[in-house]
Specification:
Layout (H helix, E strand, L loop, with lengths): L1 E2 L11 E4 L6 E2 L2 E2 L3 H10 L3 E6 L6 H10 L8 E3 H12 L4 E5 L2 H9 L3 E2 L14 E4 L7 H12 L4 E3 L5 E2 L6 E2 L1 H12 L5 E2 L5 H11 L6 E5 L2 H11 L2 E5 L18 E3 L2 H15 L1
Helix pairs in contact: 1-9, 3-7
Length: about 280
């Protein structure tokens, strides 16, 4: 364990916000300390909430996945997809959306009252969209990205759910929304007007409002400097970096991103939290 600040800061944390891929699990496997972390947080009367940039599934699907891996009880998840729907509903005067995303991402936008107008093949759109959304689309087809690029070149308002170039997986990282953004940029010469997910503080602000959290008593746990830790910096909360995912020790100091705590994995963090509980007793 390496600390950049006094470990006593962690005593005041009531809510731990966790990234998922590379922090709590990879693929379908929990990472070391995941079960123990949930146990110590619940035993101490604190809370944890998952915050993910991955917009390919919805909150309940992620909660079900975590339960299947052996974590029981209440599981709260907030995604970049939901934050994007909130952003568009609040900030943009649009109703019809073309969504480059999975069926469940499209359903999420429908649940927020939007009409999703997607073609099966280019030219079959039943209505001209007011805005276009790029998410992590594991159902991507050439026809859908061709249509999306056409709308980009037409100048439609363009929102992306998150910027991650890849997503951790059990064998090799897989292309994520950030890679799709660059594909579209190369084809059209245009990037998104706004990207909602980490490190944009809007995603955390939306989650704080939904779950009625106190910002001053939060800490963010993640494995990526430029999304997880930068979000913590942008939002003014404690940052806890785990070396269980993308970031390696040699990456520290190569950016201006501030990290308050560094641990190998959740198990090392659990050891510190247990010591706090022992002192209480």
């Amino acid at each position: 364990m390496m600390l950049n600040e006094d470990p006593e800061l962690l005593k005041n944390v009531d809510t731990f916000i966790l990234d998922m891929d590379g922090t709590f699990y990879i693929g379908n496997n929990l990472l070391p300390g995941a079960i123990e972390f949930v146990e110590i947080v619940r035993e101490s009367g604190k809370d944890f909430i998952f915050l993910t940039n991955n917009s390919s599934a919805n909150s309940e699907q992620y909660a079900d996945k975590i339960r299947r891996m052996g974590i029981s009880g209440e599981i709260k998840v907030f995604t970049s997809g939901e934050a994007t729907a909130i952003y568009i509903r609040r900030k943009m005067k649009v109703e019809r959306l073309f969504v480059l995303g999975t069926p469940c991402l499209k359903d999420l936008f429908k649940s927020y009252g939007f009409e999703v107008v997607n073609p099966g093949r280019f030219g079959e759109c039943v209505a001209d969209p007011d805005a276009i959304i790029l998410g992590f689309d594991k159902t991507l087809t050439y026809e859908s990205i061709n249509a999306f690029c056409r709308f980009v070149m037409m100048g439609k308002p363009y929102v992306a759910t998150h910027p991650d170039p890849n997503c951790p997986d059990e064998d090799f990282p897989i292309p994520d929304a950030g890679a799709m953004i660059e594909f579209v940029r190369t084809a059209t010469g245009r990037g998104p007007d706004v990207i909602i997910g980490k490190p944009n503080p809007f995603i955390l602000d939306s989650m704080i409002e939904k779950f009625h959290l106190t910002r001053e008593r939060m800490a963010f746990i993640g494995d990526r400097l430029m999304t997880d830790m930068k979000l913590a910096n942008n939002s003014g909360i404690i940052s806890i970096l785990l070396l269980s995912g993308e970031t390696k020790m040699e990456d520290i100091g190569k950016t201006d991103v501030k990290v308050d705590y560094i641990f190998e994995n959740l198990l090392e963090l659990v050891d510190v939290l247990r010591k706090f509980e022992e002192v209480k007793e």
